[in-house]
Amino acid sequence: MENRIAVVGILIEEREEIAHQVNDILAEHGEIIVGRMGVPYKEKGVSIISLIVDGTNDQLGSLAGKLGNLSGVKVKSAVTA
Hints:
By secondary structure, this protein is an alpha+beta fold. It is about 30% helix and about 45% strand. It has one domain: Alpha-Beta Plaits. The protein has a 4-stranded antiparallel sheet with strand order 2-3-1-4, with helices on one face. A hairpin with a 4-residue loop joins strand 2 (about 35-40) and strand 3 (about 45-55). It is globular and about 40 Å long.
């Protein structure tokens, strides 16, 4: 299967309650993560993580699916190549 490059946006509400689960999933998929930037957006009460990933469709789907199944986490992916 061919690798794809994608951008994944993660919006987290109530970070204190869910951050450890998000980080566990990111660590589980660490081999496909090229870059990561996290920003707390205090005015809106959320945290935002953006990822650059390079993996197969199955790997990208697994990452987005596991994150999206967490309560208070929203995920959007854009496959660029």
